[in-house]
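call fold(seq) -> tokens
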Amino acid sequence: MNEQDIIKPNVETVSIENTKADDLAHVANAAEVERSLIKTLDRRLMIWAFFGYFANGMDRNNMPNAYTTGLSDDLKLVGDEYNWAITMFFIGYIVLQIPANFIITKVRPSIMLPLVVFTWGAIVCFMALVKNVQGLYGLRICLGFAEAAFYPGIVFLLGSWYTKEELGTRTAIFVAGSQISGAFSGLISGAIATGLDGTHGMRGWKWLFIIEGLIAVVIGFVGFFVLPDFPNNTRFITGSAREVAVIRLERQGRSSAVSGLNMQTFRNLFTTPFIYLFTFMFICMQMGMGFLQNFPIILKSIGYQADFANYMMVPIWIWVGIVVVAQGYLSDKFGHRAYHILAGGLYTFVWYTILVAVRGGNVPTVLLFISAYMIPPVFGISPIMMTWANEIYSCDRETRALAIAIINSLGNLAPNFINVKVWSVVDAPNYRLGKIVTMSMTAAMIVMCFGAFILQKKKIMIPKASQRVIDEEMDKKKTHITQEDEF
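ret:
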């Protein structure tokens, strides 16, 4: 046994272990098999992921709708209690997200992901029983625990199946599920405010939690029967389809190897600049969503009825979903993820500047509505950024999963603590501080994105697979020995 055999990491083997990564010639009707594979994934993984994130968006972001349908009055929310209720979710979300996304590399996603959807749906139903703000805080934390594995888990799973020519569009379609849920939640909230409020002695916000929670329960149950695992162990993808699934990713440098946590994993995550740049970019991007997330409260504060405020969000969220998918498609078609992030960031920056500059932030109602339809490109940055992270951290399964979880968890946590003050409900409808802070952070995101693009283009400190590092170290040793021999 030679030295390289001793230090070679123990990785998971697949059926095409000895096949060249770019060789599909031995697979009969490879093109047809690949098309069939993609259709199967789209029917099962993509449709379920879309509706799963649809339920996720409703259940995570239903606080503004609940607030306008009686929650604030019944629980006597004062000051920043409303914002803290939102923040409680993200405290739970962050605590479990990183370990949950490591666990998904070791277990079957077809069991883990549907289970978390089913669980959070049940928790949302129980939120209809809260009697005070403390109970609301507790269940919002539990909701964060339950949802922690879903978004990064699906992003990771998409990256385990789709190529770089497909991944941006699919990630965008997945994310669009959350935006479309904003429209559907607005319809539900508007209908509840006018039709169900008081039915069977329950206020509208209670019905809101029950209905939206049950939707997630049903979607979670269906997931146990349709969701795939990984290319090498999915029960309904076998034979040549399984072989093609593995090869087409490996030929793009995306490893399906499972090497376990090792020092190279931590070097990839914490001694390369990308994890820090992407995390801070994600924080800035999340802040850019503040205007639309608070738009129902803005409308109610300037005198519109609660049902009208909720109904007005329906076309806005549908438009956001369309924009997000279009951005994802364009990033696949033309490549260079950074270009599309920079374009979306610059466009958003311009509109937040307008919202800050016009009449000191007290903008006319017409401009409020125009801005609501102009800001959506900031939402499309999220799936493009996660697609980029899937590609940057393609060296092994654990590094990719943990990178996605770290970026998403910290990227979501910080904005919600910041939002407690900068988007405080007491500042409605002007929210001048929130607009100024968001404008500044959008500018910072643009700078950091450009920096990450330069590093990638110059191939500076790109994360590397463990075996590749070992091979480079062996080459250096050989070179050193050769030079000594020459003397």
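The chain is about 75% helix and 0% strand.
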